[in-house]
Write a sequence for this structure.
């Protein structure tokens, strides 16, 4: 399954913000006593391009996002929703750090092995306790949850700026992220919001299973993954 334009831009937005945030933004994995907080939300992505002549073009898309008690994260189409075709989804197993790209239409999946320290632990929020005043945006209520705001960028060789708002009650998940990218005389604004957020709601367990009979596209000695609930 090839990475589409939106996925490439999402990766770019994350890398741009991470570069501007600095090394202090790396999540701590030390506190294993923390627990994952389940939630469901609509992840709304808006890309606005402002041209030099004043024309503005905006592209908007929505994905379903859910996390369970084990930290497994699903982002993609909503299964069983009549108004949407359940075509694909991305599933991250927090216990193994493996990522699965699932193609429901063609009944297949691709397994991507990753090698960070596993299992993934909930972030402790230590990096938000000593934020320099010039980078702090204070606090806000967003989507019904208390959030902490942090500025990102610019950095050496990178003029991109942005901000992110994370929710401590949601394992410091980013609830609102904005990236401003300038390319010649064009301004690109990338904004990601979690809307219709339900904290503590247990998601549908089917989101965290590889459906039976789906073909594995990864070529190698790996076995078919077991369901993780």
């Amino acid at each position: 399954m090839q990475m589409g334009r939106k996925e490439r831009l999402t990766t770019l937005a994350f890398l741009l913000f991470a570069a501007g945030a600095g090394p202090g933004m790396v999540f701590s994995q030390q506190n294993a006593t923390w627990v994952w907080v389940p939630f469901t939300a609509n992840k709304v992505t808006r890309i606005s391009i402002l041209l030099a002549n004043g024309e503005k073009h905006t592209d908007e898309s929505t994905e379903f996002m859910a996390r369970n008690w084990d930290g497994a994260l699903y982002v993609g189409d909503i299964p069983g929703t009549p108004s949407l075709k359940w075509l694909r989804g991305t599933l991250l197993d927090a216990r193994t750090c493996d990522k699965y790209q699932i193609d429901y239409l063609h009944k297949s999946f691709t397994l991507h092995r990753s090698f960070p320290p596993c299992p993934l632990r909930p972030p402790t929020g230590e990096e938000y306790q000593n934020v320099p005043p010039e980078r702090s945006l204070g606090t806000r209520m967003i989507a019904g949850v208390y959030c902490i705001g942090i500025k990102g960028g610019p950095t050496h060789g990178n003029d991109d700026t942005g901000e992110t708002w994370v929710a401590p009650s949601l394992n410091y998940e980013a609830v609102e992220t904005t990236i401003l990218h300038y390319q010649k005389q064009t301004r690109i604004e990338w904004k990601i919001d979690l809307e219709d957020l339900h904290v503590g709601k247990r998601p549908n367990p089917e989101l965290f299973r590889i459906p039976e009979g789906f073909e594995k596209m990864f070529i190698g000695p790996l076995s078919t993954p077991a369901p993780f609930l």
The mean pLDDT is 79. The chain has one helix and twelve strands. The chain has one domain: 5-216. The first strand starts at residue 39 and ends at 50.
